[in-house]
Amino acid sequence: MYIGGVEVMKGNITPGNIAEFIVYLNMLAFPVISLGWVTSLIQRAAASQKRINEFLHEEPEIISPKAVDHKLAGKIEFRNVSFNYPDTGITALKNVSFTANPGEMVAIIGRTGSGKSTIANLAMRMYDTTGGEILIDDLPLTKLNLDNYRSQIGFVPQEVFLFSDIISHNIAFSADVLDMPRVEQAAKDAAVYNNIMELEKGFETLIGERGVTLSGGQKQRVSIARAIVKHPQVLVFDDCLSAVDTRTEEEILSNLGRIMQGKTSVIISHRISTIKNADNILVLDNGEIVEQGTHSQLMELKGPYFELYEKQLLEEEEQA
Ligand SMILES: Nc1ncnc2c1ncn2[C@@H]1O[C@H](COP(=O)(O)OP(=O)(O)OP(=O)(O)O)[C@@H](O)[C@H]1O
Ligand SMILES: [Mg+2]
User: Rounded to two decimals, what is the model's pTM?
Assistant: First the structure.
């Protein structure tokens, strides 16, 4: 008998050579199955590569100018800034002007959708303004080298993002070398150190999809530790204390007061308790600054800030 031109069995058909035939058949089956398997792998890889190429060839809208590195002093100025989101055309900010000087804590408060995160995104140059100008140390933000600028800012976005990696790598992810004492200090300042030490493997604990799931508040605090570990000249917190209880929040804020001496912080929050010690509070409504000043100045105005304060006080009393 011949298979593919090769004589595999000679002579008469006997039980012995039937068994031999089946062995040969089995030997033939595996390569055929793997051929199908490899073909499907190749097709999947080709589809993935196509998508990866699309991503790699994407032209960024924000282009960093070829500028020399600038060491931040930390002055942030918004001058009549307006902004429309390009994809929806929604006007998120209208004529926003304020200044944050080194050593100051500027807070932004306002109802949901009022444009708070948009201010943070523009300050990080995730988008360029559609009107007005942002000045950093009196230089237009668009003239600064983007990587160098962002590397000097500690930014905690509203949507916390953690990698599927161990906690210490998540905190020190922007550093080239892992400096454990520094990572531990950042975790202590972000009031998450004790939570981490309670885990079986401490800072070596794997988190994310393949590891331990942290609570919302713990994630926020790991993210805060990541922002402060690099001792930034400017800190931008986008509502990142929302899932933290008020006592822990006070602890973090008092640590920040120490760390951020002489540096600039921009703190966005829904809660007045978070921001009442700020040097300047911007009250945002529908993309506009409707009031600005210190807590006591705003309380005297008896405007939107005062109303918000009364409302939150009532809510706290109801919960107590
Ligand atoms: N990526 C985006 N694309 C299009 N429109 C957006 C985008 N992000 C926000 N917006 C719109 O811009 C406006 C301001 O949104 P923003 O996120 O700045 O509000 P916010 O004050 O941070 O709200 P919250 O307190 O809920 O975080 C909203 O009307 C929102 O729908
Ligand atoms: Mg927001």
Answer: 0.82
